[in-house]
């Protein structure tokens, strides 16, 4: 039986594929020491307990990295938090609690990583679209609680009129909460966090924070192992991938593209649902445009340009002067 690898893409995990033994599902995570990933481990254990065909291991590096290699004869499953959606949900709660005017500070962590782009990028975007709240920041803690504490202390002192503050990951929110406590500002502004370790839960109970957004870490582990088991059992030949690169950074997006190419080379058919025109033209053989369940157009990728496809999306038809073309031949 082939070896198996499960990687949680959104949080950049990695180990080499050779770790997986025959019949083994290797859950490889960002860092084995955090409460979040230990809860992923519990979910994976629950899924394994429900079947008897495969063994299970849990491992991971000490620092952030990425799946850099794939092994011959392995399955991979990638699970990702919808960080943009999460950022928007936190923004909705902020508006509900603060109203639509005032200043809100954004305490981010590491600029440019995949989760930060979606989570922190979509938070102010939603506020701008649905309120007149003014953004202060973002500030970057480098995922260090002490730095987040110092940054928040300075921001509270220089912006006494803040109505809200958002700590965008676990160590940042923990430092933010401690700064609010030390400044005696509990209840004076709306503080929202992200992730749910015991410290953040206690901050909510103590009134230092209004709420914290929690990722389903247990479900991640359970769903990931079940996805691998299904792929093996049914010998999957067709995959449907719905916006697989949404809210991912450049390196994670490239990783997904490499995986799609590998699956194509193995003869697996892929239905890629995407709004990203670059992905469509880079990875697909045919493009199909639908509007409200109605087929608008279907063409081989060499017959159309990006402008042609945009015309199908916006107008529901190809340009008036369009004719089928082979772009590679024309070049």
List keywords for this structure.
flat; alpha/beta; 4-stranded parallel β-sheet; disordered N terminus; 42% helix; 13 strands; Rossmann fold; single chain; 331 residues
Describe the model.
The chain is of the alpha/beta class and 331 residues long. The chain has three domains: 1-81 and 216-236, no CATH class; 83-213, Rossmann fold, CATH 3.40.50; 285-330, no CATH class. Helices cover 42% and strands 21% of the residues. The chain has helices at 35-49, 83-98, 114-130, 145-158, 170-182, 198-206, 217-234, 250-265, 277-283, 306-315, 327-330; strands spanning 4-7, 24-28, 55-59, 75-78, 103-108, 134-140, 162-167, 190-194, 211-213, 238-242, 269-273, 286-291, 294-300. A five-stranded parallel sheet has the order 6-5-7-8-9, sandwiched between helices. A four-stranded parallel sheet has the order 3-2-1-4, with helices on one face. Helix 1 packs parallel to helix 7 and helix 4 (145-158) crosses helix 5. The protein is flat, with a radius of gyration of 23 Å. The chain starts with a strand and ends with a helix.
């Amino acid at each position: 039986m082939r070896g198996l690898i499960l990687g949680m893409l959104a949080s950049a995990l990695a180990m080499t594929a050779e770790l997986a033994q025959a019949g083994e599902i290797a859950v490889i995570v960002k860092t084995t020491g955090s409460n979040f990933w230990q809860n992923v481990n519990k979910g994976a254990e629950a899924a394994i307990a429900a079947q008897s065909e495969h063994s299970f291991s849990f491992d991971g590096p000490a620092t952030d990295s990425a799946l850099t290699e794939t092994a011959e004869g392995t399955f991979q499953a990638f699970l990702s938090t919808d960080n943009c959606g999460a950022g928007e949900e936190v923004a909705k709660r902020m508006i509900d609690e603060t109203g639509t005017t005032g200043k809100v500070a954004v305490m981010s962590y590491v600029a440019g990583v995949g989760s930060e782009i979606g989570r922190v990028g979509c938070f102010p975007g939603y506020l701008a679209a649905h309120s007149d709240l003014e953004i202060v920041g973002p500030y970057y803690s480098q995922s260090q609680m002490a730095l987040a504490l110092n940054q928040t202390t300075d921001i509270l002192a220089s912006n006494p009129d803040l109505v809200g503050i958002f700590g965008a990951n676990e160590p940042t929110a923990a430092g933010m909460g401690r700064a609010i406590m030390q400044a005696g500002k509990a209840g004076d502004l709306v503080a929202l966090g992200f992730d749910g370790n015991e410290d953040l839960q206690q901050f909510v109970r103590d009134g230092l924070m209004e709420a914290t957004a929690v990722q389903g870490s247990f479900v991640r582990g359970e769903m990931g192992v079940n996805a691998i088991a299904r792929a093996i059992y049914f010998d999957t030949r067709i995959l449907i991938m719905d916006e697989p690169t949404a809210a991912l950074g450049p390196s994670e997006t490239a990783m997904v593209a490499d995986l799609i190419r590998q699956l194509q080379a193995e003869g697996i058919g892929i239905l890629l649902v995407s709004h990203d025109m670059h992905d469509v033209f880079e990875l697909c053989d045919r493009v199909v445009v639908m509007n409200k369940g109605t087929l608008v157009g279907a063409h081989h990728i060499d017959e159309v340009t990006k402008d042609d496809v945009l015309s199908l999306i916006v107008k529901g038809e190809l340009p008036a002067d369009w004719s089928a073309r082979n772009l590679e031949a024309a070049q």
